[in-house]
Amino acid sequence: MTIPAPRPGLVIRYAFLWSHERDAGAIEGSKDRPCAIVVALPRDADGHIGTIVAPITHRPPDDVDASLEIPAAVCRSLGLDDGRHWIRFDELNRFLWPGYDLRPRPNGSYDYGMLPQGLFEQLRQGILTRQRNHKGRIVARTD
């Protein structure tokens, strides 16, 4: 299947690198997971698209202000499993699209679909708040 164009709200499969993994010396994420694109900058002079993603995880948050639970109906529409899912505000990855860490799903596609606009807006506001308060971390995957 073809790689989709990156756009905010699109949920992709990606080898997310947590900041604690990077701090321990890892250069690759230990697990492929759904991640929501939160920023997709226009192509630069070299044709690259700067992209920032937020991870989706089963792990309940330690800090309730650091994530948002995804409603079960949205999880079903995206084809996620029946477990509870949270999207994190405090951990992000930055890379050039499509990069080496975009992964195909078992069905061959690279994406799960789009977040509903209202949920994406909550995600965006949560990230902005965390960044303003210096409580978010962005792991650069392109340096």
Task: Look at the structure and give the mean pLDDT.
Answer: 95
Major sheet details: 8 strands, mixed
- Unreliable spans: none
| Total tally of structural domains | 1
- What is the number of helices? 3
Comma- or semicolon-separated keywords:
143 residues; alpha+beta; eight-stranded mixed beta sheet; globular
Describe the structure.
The longest helix is centred in the last third of the chain and has 16 residues, at 117-132. A hairpin with an 8-residue loop joins strand 2 and strand 3 (49-57). This protein has one domain (11-140). Helix content is 20%, strand content 33%. The chain is built from three helices and eight strands. The two termini are 28 Å apart. It has helices spanning 19-23, 72-78, 117-132; strands at residues 10-15, 32-40, 49-57, 67-70, 85-88, 91-97, 111-114, 137-140. With 143 residues, the protein is of the alpha+beta class.
